[in-house]
Amino acid sequence: MTQWHNDRHRLASAPVVVGIDGSPGAATALDWAADLAARRGRELRVVHAEDSAGRRLLHDRYGRRQ
């Protein structure tokens, strides 16, 4: 029971993590995750991919290049 209790508390303060790939669905997921993180006062971590040549596939919707 103690382990579950500790995990629950860690989860309650964990960052919100979202993966994006430039697709419309990923943009929707990013918006949802950003809103959730803001409402809960959590850090938002965005994970993205690069193509095999190392070029960035996208930039974030909030104006900063990733």
Automatic annotation (TrEMBL):
Superkingdom per UniProt: Bacteria
Positions in coiled-coil regions: none
Residues annotated as domain UspA: 15-51
InterPro entries: Rossmann-like_a/b/a_fold, UspA
Pfam family, one: Usp
SUPFAM superfamilies assigned: Adenine nucleotide alpha hydrolases-like
Protein name: UspA domain-containing protein
Organism: Nocardia wallacei
Organism ancestry: Bacteria, Bacillati, Actinomycetota, Actinomycetes, Mycobacteriales
